[in-house]
TrEMBL record:
Keyword terms, alphabetized: Signal
Organism of derivation: Spinactinospora alkalitolerans
Gene3D superfamilies, per the entry: 2.60.40.1240
Record flagged with keyword Signal: yes
Protein name: DUF4352 domain-containing protein
Length: 201
């Protein structure tokens, strides 16, 4: 009687082990989103990130309490931040095809991400910004972020050649801001920053 019981217990244990292995293997299978996500290329502020379809050069970051479009018709008032505005100044250059600026995120060290704000007309955030090959364009990305969430920010910029953004090119730039840098920038945050229209560097 003991032998059949042991055999049955061994079968149950083997079945449970096999089931656990199947579940673990299933977790290793990439999702559709993983397979079609942007192809990312990394770099740091002050250097050029070559994302194959475009290059990205971030030259400075500043914080502000309010932002506005420079030379806006009708004298639009500044937009006050519910937190702080993070203004990232950069040059974008398409390498070999006409592309449009797609999704843009500011990703924090704690895992929180913030989409670029689209309420200003003069920023790269604005939908429909087109980059022609070989013509560098200088301007700003603007993000509204709670002060307490500012930590080790990384800028992620994607471009696409069509509405289909699968496997689009993405540049990921570590903004190189330590905790002390963020404290200093927050202390020195400008009352207002006027963002000029996107143009040549």
């Amino acid at each position: 009687m003991t032998r059949p019981f042991l055999r049955r217990a061994a079968h149950v244990a083997a079945s449970l082990l096999l089931l656990a292995l199947i579940v673990a293997a299933h977790g290793l299978i990439p999702t559709h989103d993983d397979l079609t996500a942007p192809i990312s290329h990394s770099g740091t502020i002050g250097g050029t990130v070559d994302a194959e379809r475009f290059t990205l050069d971030v030259d400075k970051v500043e914080l502000a309490r309010s932002v506005s479009d420079e030379e806006a018709l009708g004298g639009v008032e500044g937009l006050e931040a519910n937190g702080v505005w993070v203004v990232v100044w950069a040059t974008l250059t398409s390498t070999d095809a006409t592309v449009s600026v797609g999704g843009t995120l500011l990703e924090m060290g704690d895992g929180y991400s913030y989409s670029a704000n689209t309420r200003l007309s003069n920023t790269f955030n604005n939908l429909g910004i087109v980059l022609n090959p070989g013509l560098p364009r200088y301007g700003a990305f603007v993000f509204e972020v709670p002060e307490e969430r500012l930590s080790s920010p990384t800028l992620r910029v994607s471009v696409q050649e069509s509405l289909d953004d699968r496997l689009s090119a993405q540049a990921s730039v570590d903004l190189g801001l330590s905790e002390s840098d963020i404290d200093r920038l927050t202390e020195e945050a400008a009352d207002s920053v006027a963002v000029p229209p996107i143009g040549p560097p």
